[in-house]
Amino acid sequence: PKSPLQQLDAAHHLHPFTDSQALHHKGARVIERGEGVYLWDADGNRILDAMAGLWCVNLGYGREELVQAAEQQLRRLPYYNLFFQTTHPRATELAASLATLLPGDMEHLFFTGSGSECNDTVVRMVRHYWAEQGQPERNTIISRHNAYHGSTLAGASLGGMKPMHAQGGLPLPGIVHIDQPYYFGEGGGQSPHQFGLQRARQLEQKILESGPDKVAAFIGEPIQGAGGVIIPPDSYWPEIQRICRQYDILLVMDEVICGFGRTGHWFASEYYGLQPDLLCMAKGITSGYIPLGAVAVGARVAQGLISGGEFFHGFTYSGHPVACAVALANIAVMQKERLVERVHDDIGPYLQQEWASLGSHPLVGETRGLGLLAALELVADKSDNRRFDEDVGAGVICREHCFELGLVMRAVGDTMIISPPLVIGRLEVDELITKARQALDLTYQTLMK
Ligand code: PLP
């Protein structure tokens, strides 16, 4: 039976990314409280959150430093905007602080309220930039199938999620897609190196097809997150960067998931040796405590924007002062606790080593990961990595078993993924792996019945 809260919820609340019929049947899962890497539901069950919410609660739940930063800023200046030649101290301080952390020549920041707004901003910014350069016809943006760039019209268009495109006539004109570098699913017998090059060279084909003087930018997540933690072969990103340079196309990295230490670097662009022209961040910028996004802008585009007159774009909550204050406190904690180094040198390698041990399970065809991002592939037959039929729903079955055991893992089709808080400890990693293995055993029993 549904609790009174679940009844209220079913009666009044339309949830994002939720099958409403299933929700009405079962009632929503009610999460009431969090501390460290753990959540507690309304029945008092303790749950290890191996997804850090939606890839964002990097410092874990209940950090007093972030609460105090928000409270102080709420008292001092709860709101002001950045429009019409105005700033407030926290936005300026945050822009300057991010400029020291970002790779390459990214010295300028444009604030938004979310990852989706960052990507909408990117579309408008690159088109504005090229128009100011006297090339307004350069307005096509190339993205990738199965990418996730948000839920606004431009974000969902840049994203390559077929069901999202199907609901509402997307993508918008001027946004086209190439294939993702998903070796396990689509490698087709090539070496990872060859496959990486082949997928990167689809960018060149698409540029030639679209007309090199019509293409404004290429956008990609360094590691596709919501698409299933797709870690590209090493040959992929250098070739993408080479092609962008050859055709003078702006390179945009969507680091909404990968940014802020997730891969053991402040930004994954560093790991891949990339020098993007624009870089999007959100989520981990405040550890998800409050909404904030930012587009980092490299020297070339920044100069174009600065000399290009007014950019008719911005959000009421661009660089909200409370969000900026929380982001500054978040960065301060990350630096004090050396969390990026910790992911790189200690807890990241430990998680990856333990996660790889799940590879021996009869249901697991591959494990992969980097830093505190990891995925495993459920297969029906390990000898040839044959997948389950889609209607079996193996991933969802595994995810539900995880919940029963007190573990949040996410299922993307039959790919199980994790992205735990950066503060996770070794014993908590051990618990995560033990529960994941138990969930795999239960999934095996359910599927082999
Ligand atoms: N870009 C990436 C890579 C994401 O993973 C997400 C969200 O998951 C977004 C953009 C959209 O961010 P938001 O939900 O804050 O709009």
Describe the structure.
The protein has 2 domains: 4-63 and 338-448, Aspartate Aminotransferase, domain 1 (Alpha-Beta Complex); 73-335, Aspartate Aminotransferase, domain 2, CATH 3.40.640.10. The chain is built from 17 helices and 15 strands. It has helices spanning 4-12, 20-26, 52-55, 64-76, 89-101, 115-132, 153-158, 162-166, 183-186, 192-210, 236-246, 268-271, 299-307, 321-336, 339-356, 394-405, 426-448; strands at 31-35, 38-41, 46-49, 106-112, 140-144, 175-178, 215-220, 250-254, 278-281, 293-298, 364-370, 373-378, 407-408, 410-412, 415-418. It starts with a helix and ends with a helix. The model has no long low-confidence stretch (mean pLDDT 97). Residues 54, 114-116, 119, 148-150, 155, 221, 225-226, 254, 256-257, 282 line the site of pyridoxal-5'-phosphate. Pyridoxal-5'-phosphate (PLP) is lined by residues 54, 114-116, 119, 148-150, 155, 221, 225-226, 254, 256-257, 282. One of its GO terms (molecular function) is transaminase activity. This is Aspartate aminotransferase family protein. Its cofactor is pyridoxal 5'-phosphate. Keywords: Aminotransferase, Pyridoxal phosphate, Transferase.
